[in-house]
What we know:
Layout: H1 28-40, E1 51-52, E2 74-80, E3 83-84, E4 87-88, E5 95-99, E6 104-107, E7 115-126, E8 133-143, E9 154-161, H2 166-183, E10 198-206, E11 209-220, E12 222-232
Parallel strand pairs: 1-2
Antiparallel strand pairs: 2-9, 3-4, 5-7, 6-7, 7-8, 8-9, 10-11, 11-12
Amino acid sequence: MMDESSSSSSPSSSHGVELPGFRFHPTEEELLDFYLRRMLAGNKLHGDIIGFLNIYKHHPTELPGLARINGEREWYFFVPRDRKHGRPNRTTENGFWKATGSDKKILTSSDPRKALGVKKTLVFYEGRAPRGRKTDWVMNEYRMPDACTLPQEIVLCKVYRKATSLKVLEQRAAMEEEMMAYISPTPSSEYSMSFSDFEDVKFSGGGQGWSCTTALNMDWNQDTLWPLDTTFMPLC
């Protein structure tokens, strides 16, 4: 039975020794041919650098804290292949992982004709399928080739957050400022008026309408009298 609760510990914590400067950045060939293949074959990996976790029970923001290696930009997990009605089920409580593009064969560096495995790229969407809000969380799912005789119920997943360009960040900030200005407009500081600015208000009229004649004192660089003739339509 795989223990997911132990996946949050670092590989050196069990020995009480930290390794300054240690970085875990394997190539795709190493992920497939060394880590995933050995794990599927039942060969225990020294150090247990990659832990087991059903990532579909978690929001992507929780995953960095659940990885064995708390990387700065990418995190790795052995993930059970959950299926629903014969198809892979990648739905979470808060959203879903959506495949983008076609699967890519990973070839060996020594023999370009030999496929080590397959990589599928997925993007996390918040909300419910088919609609949802696209996020910048990305996952590369690595699996053995279909012709491989090893068990296929486990895949190796690399989760990372896509870098956002400065231009996109500036566009987001501008849009947020426009939205705030639309929702909470601020009154103009150049001119404001209250009913106390009206003097000598006189109403006259009959059935065709009402006429209002007044003098408005407004402080606009200097006191000026502004005549205002306005006709008000009767309410009933």
